[in-house]
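Backbone-to-sequence.
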């Protein structure tokens, strides 16, 4: 399970970007299936990450924004399901659904590392690090996290199985992560395994090494760093794909890739990052904040050159992986699941999905209460800002959300609002305790 961080729908070659160099992701998409309408469960990181592991909407498991909570141990996760079938499980990269250091003290969130949620091993940070030299605050950085040239957030952000890591942390952060992934795969090549790899790229601080910046000689500094760090991540994904083939296990290994949300606000507004023409960016309920680049590869099972415009989501990972690895019965006694099994879609047995999708992002202390529902081709959203307006779009005719139909279609707004209220009420019951044993 591969995931990038703040990579927009248009920030990859397989979605038509002709400037960013991503040959390995492009080859992965061409060798498997490209998801043209793949949605993050929320327009920002932590809620989406929880949805990937639980198959549930963020409003259901209670992580409504970044740094506002941690994963509850009562949630059933993909690694917990797979461990029942003797899978070896490991996590690598940006966790961000709980602190990874037991003595870390903060006014928001709590200690809830990968080992509390089914992972045998982990090499993880709590949250963002620079994409080059992840232990040091980069040159020119003037924002949160640290002062230029000083240790990032005061020290060493990576923790491996409970111990702070101090070796092999220089250079490209994606390489730092993959250096831990490869040995895990090599040592488990003869048995089933789950590797969850969540890169920090291209989340700020966005920094690329000189080698990668030089690949974009005609771009400005911001683009050199942004494009360069994505190319560096792509190189590591190529390294992973090559290792699977070297070990001869590629035909019994499925590889997923997606981003956690749309491009960051600043990078999108400056024109550095791309939402592929879709309206909005991270922190917004519009398509640009929710649609992400995504593909999957499984040689011999997923037909090469496949693509789908069916609306899929990060909540679909759990039922899909459970269906492949442990059988559908494994999740029937679990908590309510919002996702669906994508295997029939990926193998060509079905070409469409019929279900509603719900999205949410909430910081009521700041007046933020963004929500959206897609039902059929219709999308109703409440803007994620104080006093956010209700909008209605027909995505079949208006995929870029240019024509708000809310005022001209009051009956449709009423029907969609009722559906949204019902899903939100169900989610509130879940996070208030209905799904957990006492």
């Amino acid at each position: 399970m591969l995931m990038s961080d703040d990579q927009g729908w248009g920030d990859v070659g397989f979605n038509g970007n002709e400037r960013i160099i991503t040959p390995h992701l492009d080859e992965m998409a061409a060798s498997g299936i490209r998801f043209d309408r793949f949605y993050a469960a929320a327009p920002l990181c932590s809620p989406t990450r929880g949805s990937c592991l639980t198959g549930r909407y963020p409003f259901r498991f209670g992580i409504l924004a970044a740094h506002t909570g941690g994963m509850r141990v009562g949630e059933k996760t993909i690694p917990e399901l797979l461990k029942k079938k003797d899978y070896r499980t490991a996590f690598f990269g940006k966790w961000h659904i709980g602190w990874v250091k037991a003595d870390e003290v903060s006014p928001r969130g709590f200690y809830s590392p990968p080992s509390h949620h089914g992972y045998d091993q982990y090499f993880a940070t709590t949250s963002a690090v620079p994409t080059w030299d992840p232990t040091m605050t980069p040159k020119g950085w003037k924002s949160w996290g640290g002062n230029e040239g000083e240790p990032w957030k005061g020290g060493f952000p990576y923790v491996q199985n409970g111990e702070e890591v101090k070796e092999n942390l220089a250079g490209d952060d994606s390489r730092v992560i993959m250096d831990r992934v490869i040995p895990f795969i090599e040592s488990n090549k003869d048995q089933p395994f789950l590797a969850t790899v969540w890169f920090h790229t291209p989340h700020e601080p966005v920094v690329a090494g000189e080698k990668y910046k030089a690949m974009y000689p005609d771009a400005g500094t911001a683009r050199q760093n942004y494009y360069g760090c994505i190319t560096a991540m792509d190189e590591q994904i190529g390294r992973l794909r090559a290792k699977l083939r070297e070990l001869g296990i590629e035909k019994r290994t499925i590889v997923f890739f997606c981003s956690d949300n749309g491009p960051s606000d600043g990078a999108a507004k400056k024109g550095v990052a791309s939402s592929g023409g879709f309206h909005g960016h991270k922190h917004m309920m519009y398509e640009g904040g929710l649609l992400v680049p995504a593909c999957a590869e499984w040689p011999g099972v997923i037909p090469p050159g496949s693509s789908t415009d069916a609306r899929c989501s990060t909540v679909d990972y759990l039922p899909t992986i459970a269906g492949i690895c442990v059988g559908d019965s494994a999740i029937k006694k679990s908590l309510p699941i919002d996702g669906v099994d994508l295997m029939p879609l990926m193998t060509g047995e079905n070409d469409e999905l019929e279900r509603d999708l719900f999205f949410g992002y909430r910081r009521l202390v700041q007046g933020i209460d963004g929500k959206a529902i897609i039902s059929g081709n219709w999308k109703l959203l409440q803007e994620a800002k104080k006093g956010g307006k209700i909008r209605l779009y027909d995505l079949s005719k208006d995929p870029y959300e240019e024509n708000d139909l809310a005022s001209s279609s009051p009956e449709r707004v009423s029907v969609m609002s009722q559906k949204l209220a019902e899903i939100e009420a169900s989610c509130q019951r879940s996070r208030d305790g209905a799904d957990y044993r006492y």
